[in-house]
Amino acid sequence: MWRELNPFGWHTTVRVLPSIAFTDTEPNHTVMKILASLLAVSATLLLGAAVLVPQDKEQDAAKAKADAAKAVKVRTLLTLTGADKMGKQMLKQMMAQFAKMPQLPEGFADKFVELAKKEDLVSMIVPVYVKHLEEKDIDATIEYFGTPSGKRWLAAQPKILQESTTIGQKWGQQLAMKVMRELRK
Fold first, then answer.
1. Per residue in 103-120, pLDDT tens?
2. What SS3 string covers the chain?
3. Strand pairing partners for 123?
4. pLDDT tens digit string along 8-20?
5. Helix axis angle, 83-99 relative to 28-46, nearest 10°?
6. pLDDT value for 32
């Protein structure tokens, strides 16, 4: 975060979220759009959303049955990989960012946590996995994460996510400052 005198002589505080810069002079709705975008990007990294295109009734029924079986396996995979733990870690990091944003209304972070239901997000993400992964690949992934190597990989993920997030934040801040310097030239 830094303060600068803009061309109109006003002091502007620029805050940098992971790769996103905005100013205190922007309206709160812009801040909320940025927060929503940040949340969407974070969620997309872990899960995503899907649109299913209908074909004919028989194919739809067969596909729905196959997709339901895959969805059960995807939920197993998400549990096995600790996606819920990573989601909680990301939520905690978002709350830390919210705490640094005085323009958010009183109680925003607490209400956000209260309304953030894991199952809502999981239900939107499972179809993405179903859409993009073959059942045999889901099975192989589940099998891998049952091996000693897979378990070690999973155990390292929270630390990798935490360190990667910190690196991404620093990178975003440095890049934002570089862009600001370039624009002043």
1. 888 888 888 888 887 777
2. CEEEECCCCCEEEEEEECCEEEECCCCHHHHHHHHHHHHHHHHHHHCCCCCCCCCCHHHHHHHHHHHHHHHHHHHHHHHHCCHHHHHHHHHHHHHHHHHCCCCCCCCHHHHHHHHCCHHHHHHHHHHHHHHHCCHHHHHHHHHHHCCHHHHHHHHHHHHHHHHHHHHHHHHHHHHHHHHHHHHHC
3. none
4. 344 334 344 444 4
5. 160
6. 53
Question: Any idea which residue has 């649109």 for tokens?
Answer: 51
Q: Where are the domains of the chain?
A: 2-184
The predicted pLDDT at position 30 comes to: 52
Burial class (CB in 10 A: 0-12, 13-18, 19+), 61: exposed
Cα–Cα distance for residue pair 68/152, rounded to 1 Å: 30
Task: Please give the pLDDT value at position 177.
Answer: 93
Q: Which residues of the chain have pLDDT under 50?
A: 1-27, 31, 35, 41, 43-54
